[in-house]
Amino acid sequence: xxxxxxxxxxxxxxxxxxxxxxxxxxxxxxxxxxxxxxxxxxxxxxxxxxxxxxxxxxxxxxxxxxxxxxxxxxxxxxxxxxxxxxxxxxxxxxxxxxxxxxxxxxxxxxxxxxxxxxxxxxxxxxxxxxxxxxxxxxxxxxxxxxxxxxxxxxxxxxxxxxxxxxxxxxxxxxxxxxxxxxxxxxxxxxxxxxxxxxxxxxxxxxxxxxxxxxxxxxxxxxxxxxxxxxxxx
Length: 233
Fold this sequence. Notes:
Blueprint: E1 6-9, H1 15-26, E2 30-35, H2 38-48, E3 54-58, H3 64-78, E4 83-86, H4 101-129, E5 132-136, H5 149-168, E6 174-180, E7 183-184, E8 200-201, H6 202-213, E9 223-226
Parallel strand pairs: 1-2, 1-4, 2-3, 4-5, 5-6, 6-9, 7-8
Helix pairs in contact: 1-6, 3-4, 4-5
């Protein structure tokens, strides 16, 4: 148990993050899950019933002190850190023409600042373990959509992934960008509900994340774009 790999997932109390935690725990990982909603975290812990291999940590992924505290708590509980999954994400409704700037502020902090803070906090431990950084981007970070500010934040994540890879490749750290298309998760709740058309499940995206995480040392999976069949862009 002391040598089993350790993964920290931000925004992991539901959706893709929770699905990834479930799969990694089944594969023998020890997992820390962070999120802002304490009740959701408590519910996930009760569902999974893995008191020795699951640590939940309430906090804000866009706050530097909170992110560092999650990393420190993981090291204290499990003694190492092999992988971080920057999954916390947020979409504000509307476009650049009619959206609420207050929502933009939260979106930029959550989607762009939060993964950067996680990378910074985890880097010393990942250098020791020669681990992996996984960033959850979006198809919206590869295609242009009129007035889509959310998409602009995900373009930033696309750039962050490659810039990070170039920084850490000499340390033996892998960097993977997983860019989902439409996924059936609570992500859509605040922006008018799920769109029409075929949707992926959170578990299907978790499949891609776990596949990248379990690659052998020396294999660096860089970019994985996953769309449901029928999503045109």
